[in-house]
Protein 1
Amino acid sequence: MFITGMCFAQSQIDSKIQKKGERVMSMERVMIEEPRLARLLFSDTRFAWLWLPLRLYLGYMWFEAGWHKFVDPKWMGSGEALLNYWERGLKMTPKPTISYDWYRGFIEYLVNAEAHTWFSKIIIFGELAIAAALVLGAFVGVAAFFGGLMNWSFIMAGSASTNGMLFAIATWLVLAWRNAGWIGLDRWLLPALGTPWKPGQVFTVTKHSISAV
């Protein structure tokens, strides 16, 4: 009986130690290292040339789309062209253009609120700003993200066209935000301004100056 009791007690202790070890392991921070190829493509500035053609192409496409709307009174003036685009997307025959009810409801809300009068300007200047940032290589990751968001919005509204391809290119440029604009203004902007999680030289110098005072 004594031996049996000792074995049972030992098994209970071992079980508790094992459970405690499992809890500790589950709380450990796990960092999965990215492949070397990914680091080279998306981080190494030596591969900036790889993204330059895609960046310039995407910038040109956004400039062409934005400028076409800028010189069109139905876009830049009354916003009638955007209203017509939304109304085409809301058609239900012979089949719904917009596949998702929640997005159709969102477009209907914009139509009823007559948002086309000001929303068209946001689209125009947004497209031109994205084009300028991509061509100049300034905050390429941010520009590509918002460009991809606009492509996604057009696709959701039932307009495929070139949006799928442009969205794919934008996605790659977002992944390569660290080096895609290195042959451009990001060569100086990123080290100077840094990121929200790591301030750049400008903010570091300012912080030291304030501390010295």
Protein 2
Amino acid sequence: MLWGDLKPAVSVKELMKYMIDPVADNIFNAVGSTVTKHGTVDIEPRTEEDWDKIRIGAVSLAEGAYLLKIRRPFAAAGDENNSAGPDAVELSPAQIAAKVERDPVEWNARIEALRNVALEALEVVKRKDVNELWDVGENLDKACEACHRSYWYPGEGAEFYRKLRRRLEEFHQQSTRDSAGTRPPKR
């Protein structure tokens, strides 16, 4: 039960950009490997401060995910996403809202999936298990992408990638033809 009324300050898109995504980065960026000219550099939490940063991300994400349950606009006024034109892959805010209205169970299930990964991250932080952080990052990516592909860019399916591949091949062929004409003649 709530102790008072809730009135959102921002849209879903703004909540994602300014809160959910930045705190998720505390988890995403906790482990990794970077190849440099000096070799491979492994990124992992080593100090209590490193683990606290992950904990901050996990707590904020677990609690922040439930802010997505508060009815709010999906984008700020005037922001229609990239939903215009024949090749648009993003839904408009109105289309997203209609989809949620038709099936609020899916919307809530996506929110729970996000929250569950955050709770998983909290457990991993308690155990300070670096190896499991890799799995948490992958699970977080899957939860985010599953929701985005359902509500934000569902047009990014197999046909989208076929069209993209064709466009890239055409671009490559054109680039090859253009560069072939600019080479100095062989002697």
Protein 3
Amino acid sequence: MTTMSRTRQWGMAWVFLTLAISVHVIDEALTGFLPLYNSIVESWRESNQWVALPTFSFSVWITGLVLFVSALFGLSPFVFRGSAFLRPMAYVLGILMTGNALGHIGASIYWGKLAPGVISSPILLLAALAVLITTCRERRSATKSCSAAWRNPALGAGGRQRTNSRKSVTGN
């Protein structure tokens, strides 16, 4: 694949994750996630003074998430251009959304009933994994320093043959 097609894949995965986050926010809003979240945080605070998680009113929570999703959509053109400054953000976002999805799925298993937000979690998980995979592929195709080394461990960065820099000493 060419660098352009890998960059396009990364952009498509970014948009897919942004849409999945949008659907997930709607799922959480419709299934009562926020009251459950706020009650869990308040009970943690009572038993552990060091817990610094915030609680939210619905309007603050939904406004923040709408702004967050809007910002992600706004960054999409930069992802489609392969902007390197977004790669760390893509990794962090992919990891956080993977954890978010697995948290909802794990809570459902633990509680024995559907947790708020679990319906959209499989889509969120797939989209997050797609961003992680395509970000890695795009980075490797853009830098070309890792792709050759992945295929042949004897190759160093940039696909050059590794050589032993130490000279052999025979003891004479």
Protein 4
Amino acid sequence: MFQNWIKYTSAAVAISMLVHVDVSADDSSANASDPSEVAEAAESKRVTVEVARDHAKLMHSIYKATLDVMHDRYFHADRAVVPARAMEDVFLELKRQSDVQARWISANLKPMSVSHKPETKFEKQAAKEIGNGKPDVEIVEDGFYRRAGAIPIGSGCISCHSGFFKNPSKKPKFAALVISIPVSDE
């Protein structure tokens, strides 16, 4: 099973290439002692809003496809890690390499994890809009392009996500993936 997992981690490699990260290089910003070197390294990872938007859309597609494959092929009740949780490890590694941030938020269901509760004003607004059927929401703030994209929760997933033995409404259910990419001032 681990060998098959490696196939799907290639998505993270593709993403890191998109955001101009040399995964073979050491992280000089993590080892820099001079504050100007740290600032310079952070600034070099910034892209224009247009580039960030394109990257976020592609990253959303890759992450969603990876999540779907993991659910389908590897998640079998109590014998595996929950796929969304496994993806969070990929998010952390990508953040370490590129300063790109990604996180799950609940949209119109109770969060399965306290860490999936929308926190910022943007996340709360995005959850509301996505919960009402909007496919994505975006904003540029605090030096980041932020995009929240809908993750539909299908019929095979709804019993865990809405609570066992509950009869969910017929309204479509969504989570969301928030991707934040550092942007330049253009």
